[in-house]
Amino acid sequence: MNPNSGNLTWHQSNVTRQDRQKRNRHKSCTLWFTGLSGSGKSTLSFSVERELFARNIATYVLDGDNIRHGLNRDLGFSSGDRKENLRRVGEVSKLFVDAGHIVLASFVSPDENDRLMVREMFRPDEYIEIFVKCSLEECEKRDPKGLYKKARNGQIENFTGISAKYDIPRTPELIIDTEQLTVEQSVASVLQYLEERNYLTSC
Q: Which residues contact 2 (CB under 8 A, 6 or more apart)?
């Protein structure tokens, strides 16, 4: 709780979310990509962003590593810091949605309760949880950053999948199995989901 919250006032913009969506000719929402490190979240989110951009959709990726370079560089990887990391990202995502964007948030976000916390920040149609499914064995084989090797050697503490748990999403809106689908097929699945629910059409 902000100790100064009693002295703060939310200033309502004269431009509404609906105004922005109407001008953009599409709805705004948050696509929340969750999964183990190495599952393909970043690759998928940036690939979806490119396709949306090509369709003149206002979009932006909030990537876990990128956010920790700046906005959240003061946070570590304790359960409390992970929760705060996601809370901040959720709040930033809300601003993007209010601005009429489709924001793609790519975060391991291993705790079900933390993901629920973020979900509850949004209206039901503004939050789409995408479970990027990939077995721990395959993620370790890929190990693009060498993190699993370091975790196995005890060089990284509280590493999800090795020394910290990952809660498999109970009711995600979409599951993308990157062991079975190519990047192109995965992107197509996300776009199909959005198209079928009219997120990409004029408001």
A: 8
